[in-house]
Write a structure and sequence with these properties.
Helix 2 crosses helix 4. The protein has a two-stranded antiparallel ribbon with strand order 1-2. It is mainly alpha-helical and 107 residues long. It has 5 helices and 2 strands.
């Protein structure tokens, strides 16, 4: 993922506002909007988001995006979005900790 510059006009804790101004993650942002999680997910310290860029969707099996968008798969869509979030604004050091923790639990 590419770093997203956060301007003074956007609260960096409002991940959904930041995503809305990130053109290379527009597909992920549209899925967040479809999931309606922006209305229910709030953290005092914000979130760190690992948002796939638009060109990443081409690497998934055909039909994956369409499957996530179906109303009957709303729970799956929400789980997918949440799997890309870590509560709090994490530094590089914290990210490395989470990455290693995930790797050891899924390795």
């Amino acid at each position: 993922a590419l770093p997203v510059p956060v301007t003074q006009s956007i609260d960096p804790r409002d991940v959904f506002a930041v995503l809305g101004r990130t053109p290379h993650c527009s597909t992920f942002n549209s899925l967040v909007e479809l999931s309606e999680l922006s209305k229910t997910l709030h953290a005092a310290d914000g979130y760190t988001v690992f948002a796939p860029q638009d060109d990443c969707w081409n690497l998934l099996p055909a039909g994956t995006l369409e499957t996530l968008q179906k109303p009957e798969n709303h729970a799956l869509l929400c789980a997918y979005i949440k799997s890309h979030l870590i509560a709090g604004l994490n530094s590089d050091y914290q990210w490395e900790y989470h990455r290693q923790k995930w790797y050891h639990s899924h390795g």
